Amino acid sequence: MLRALSTVLLLFAHAQLKGGETRHVADAGEFNRAISVAKPGDTILVAPGDYGNNFHFRGVRGTAKEPIVIAAADPAKPPRFLGKTAPLHFASPSYLELRDLTISGSGGNGLNIDDSGNPDQPAHHITLRHLHIHDIGPRGNLDGIKLSGVDDFVVENCTVERWGSNGSAIDMVGCHRGLVSESTFRKGGANAVQAKGGSSDITLRRCRFEDAGLRAVNLGGSTADNSFRPRLKDFPKEGIYEAKNLIVEGCTFVGGGAAVAFVGVDGALVRYNTLYHPGRYAILILQERADAGFIPCRNGVFENNLVVFRSDAWAQGGLNIGANTAPKTFKFASNAWYCEDRPDRSAPKLPTAETNGVVGKDPQFTDPAKGDFKVGRESPVRARGAHALPAREPDGAMPPQAIRGRKALFFDANLRASHPLSELVGRYKLLSHSNAMGGAYGRHLVAACQLGWKVSAD
Question: Which domains are delineated in the chain?
Answer without folding.
Answer: 78-388 (2.160.20), 400-450 (no CATH)
